[in-house]
Fold:
Amino acid sequence: MRSVKASDPDIGQTASESGLYRVVENDVPTRRSVLLGLGAAGGAVALGAGGVASAYWNDISQIRQTLAAKPSTVIETRHGALEYAQAGEGPPVLMIHGTGGGFDQGLLFAHRLVDAGYRVIAPSRFGYLRSAFPDDPSSENQADALVDLLDHLGIERIAIAGGSAGALPAMAFAIRHPHRTSALIPIVPAAYAPGRPPARPWSATQTWVAENVLASDFLFWAGVTAMRDTMIRTLLATDPALVAAASPAERDRVSEILRGILPVSARARGLLNDARLAGNPAPMDLAAITAPTLAISLEDDAFLTADAARHIAETVPGSRLIVYPDGGHVWAGRDAQMFSAIDTFLQEIGYSR
Structure:
């Protein structure tokens, strides 16, 4: 393992359960309280101004129109429909989005790779946007569907990156299809790390609240509108102060990630599946991965993905590790630095433009 770190602060925080992933105990409110609080936020916004309904409909209509204007394609795989989009030219990179995303989030994550001369292919995972939600929406089945996508595109081998919950199918791909994997890049991986207590399952009431909130674009919009910093702290597991101190371009990127979860109703099944898979991730056979691997995380990611990144780097033979001291789960202020490191890694292993 080759490790690159800017510093090694003592975070001094322990894990606690949350609605989708674990968050640190002093990160209050948790995702679970956010789900419950969104209803209150919706009521508060609705009572606060007579023009709220008009503002919501204008905003959500614009969001839907913007999403519809982004070109994407749907193909059939062994597990049903799979949506994807492409951008750029050059060596192909498969960018797997995180929780709340879709092909649009994948393209947003990897836009710097497009600028650097790579062809980015960004699918929508199971339950997101126009992709199917099969009876068994496991990370392994997602990985197999991605093989069908590569076959459709005529690509034999590819570098695959996965952000957050998207790291799970990316890692499964590298394990199940080593001959198709040129490189593996788990970014803030919402993956297994030894020594963590298992998350307790949701109660029937909490499940009902989550399912109904995630079906309501208005409630989620109200949360983004009335509770922006809380949503950044909990859903994006990032200190809002870091976002406020970042460059205007970085603040815009974080806002686009948060607002890009809308329309949440079109992503709800994927979100709930991520709650199951990434909320209590199972161990994977990481020692079986043969592709060059670069694991990346941040010390202050409130989902504690630095633990998972270290576990990946310690277990995958010959892997590399980068842990930045700050930036949170959406690497606020680190985007250019991180994707420059990814470009350098791909060049060093001979996978470059």
In short: The two ends are 26 Å apart (CA to CA). The CA atoms of residues 110 and 344 lie 14 Å apart. The chain has a mean pLDDT of 86. The chain has 14 helices and eleven strands.
